Amino acid sequence: MFSVPYGTKQLDFDLPDGMTAQVVVPPETPAAPDPTGVVEAALDCVDWGDWRGARAAAIAINDKTRPVPHAYLLPPLLRRLEGLGLAPDAIQLIIATGAHSPMPPEEYSRVMPADILARYPVLCHDSDDRAGLQYRGQTRRGTPIWVNGHFAAADLRIVVGDIEPHQFQGFSGGVKSAAIGLAGRDTINHNHALMTDPRAQLGRYADNPARQDVEDIGQAIGVHLALNAILNGQKDIVHVLAGEPRALMEAGVPLSRAVCQVTVAAPFDLVIASPGGHPKDINVYQAQKALAHASLVTRDAGAVIVAAACPEGAGSRGYESWTTGLRSHPEVTARFEREGFRVGPHKAYLIARDASRVRVFWVTDMAPDHMRALLLDPAVSLEAAIEHALSDLPTGARVGIMPQASSTIPHLADQPAMNHQVHEGT
User: Fold this and answer.
1) Across the chain, what does the average pLDDT equal?
2) Contact criterion met (CB below 8 Å) for 323 and 375
3) Structure pTM?
4) Which domain holds residue 398?
5) Is the domain of 292 the same as that of 329?
């Protein structure tokens, strides 16, 4: 009997008699025994005197699609800011949605404790609100830098988040919560278009153009401080780092890699992948990352089954409307390449990229017709998907199970070692 996370529950399943599988998870990493103490220790390393006299602070925090442990991270940070003499109403919390739909106020409690909501001003970023953005020039790669005006106007600009694998940024964390999370759509579109560069890979940081462009955006914005957690597969805090954002990434990338990376001896015929449950499978937009990671260790003409609840459907109106009328993955690829990069449709392109090489089945709570409109192949159950996939594969197929696929860096043993350096150009 095997099990993978699915929304807020688990899906149990068996494989046919005599068939074995490799569960692809990184080595188990224990949680920090005192998470609050770990956060305090990280904040103790910051020279808070540098910001004494600041009149206003702004903090970028992740939205409901990220499992950031704000209940542990925010209270100690906010106490330090008040200790600098900042009044609660001078500390602006901004939910960093990036190109995701803005969260309505009634959902704010999904990302932060009620006592924080009652004490500090909170607003949600909108990447399409041009009047609410400020321009900060462009990066060396030509990305126009539009940033949330409230964040730009603060004396002290802080990002809170986590460092984890990212399918084309290499790793999340550091300035990304502001550089992308609080950016305008033009900024996000131009940066994410760099994902087509062959160096824009999962787990690659130093020479990853998409990630290094993010670093340039963060520098132009002037992010002063980052507070980031590194989580294990159970979403428990393992490490916490605080400090200047680039130095934090230099220290955090190797720690995240140690928690998330696992070596696979050879490609699988079939991979059964879960993004990791809620909130990583909150919608297709997020769940696609599990497909991207699983396909890295799936052979050509093999199969991937994505088990993702997706209670919020596609997760992007732009992605959903863009696929209307398209009938195949080659049509998706042709249209995307013809029209140029756009956030939202890029999810259809990424799915089509992997689906052109491997057979993909989706197990979700979405209506089958809705899934087919998104060019997703629906299965009525995980068991049915397994049976269907195996019917097209050779006897004795090599099977892998990735229960935390979106947070796992799978590395084939015969491939070059991942890029461990963190300085661009080294």
Assistant:
1) 94
2) yes
3) 0.88
4) 2-27+265-412
5) yes
